[in-house]
Amino acid sequence: VQLKESGGGLAQAGGSLKLSCAASGDTSCIHNMGWYRRAPGQARVFVAKHPGLGNILYLTAVKGRFTLTRDDNTIELQMNALKEEDTAVYYCRAECDEGDYWGQGIQVTVSS
């Protein structure tokens, strides 16, 4: 499985950005897909996860601001009302029974 991320970039606080992640290869194994992020000097943390079937899960800090959608093996994260603390490298993750796959990461920077 290969994951290709796009979007991100620079936004002002209160603005919006969208991240996309498209999976290719042997995608039949994928069940969950989601986003994680690593802020400068911090560990990578969960942001949102789409199970395909079932409830979408969000980090409490992004609930009501971020929306995760999924179309087959492509996910999009619409990020609204951005805050400076959303600045991080965002990573796409696809979960298969045999293991997880990660994207290369994409930078999101929110300025005041």
Relative helix content? under 10%
- C-alpha-based Rg, rounded: 13 Å
The N- to C-terminal Cα distance equals 37 Å
Shape: globular
- What is the count of helical runs? 0
Strand content: over 45%
Average pLDDT, rounded to a whole number, is 96
- Low-confidence spans: none
Give the class from helix and strand content and strand pairing. mainly beta
Order of helices and strands: EEEEEEEEEEE
Q: What composes the largest sheet?
A: 7 strands, mixed
List how many beta strands DSSP finds.
11
SSE layout:
Blueprint: E1 2-7, E2 9-12, E3 17-24, E4 33-38, E5 44-50, E6 57-58, E7 66-71, E8 74-79, E9 88-96, E10 99-102, E11 106-111
Parallel strand pairs: 2-11
Antiparallel strand pairs: 1-3, 3-8, 4-5, 4-9, 5-6, 7-8, 9-10, 9-11
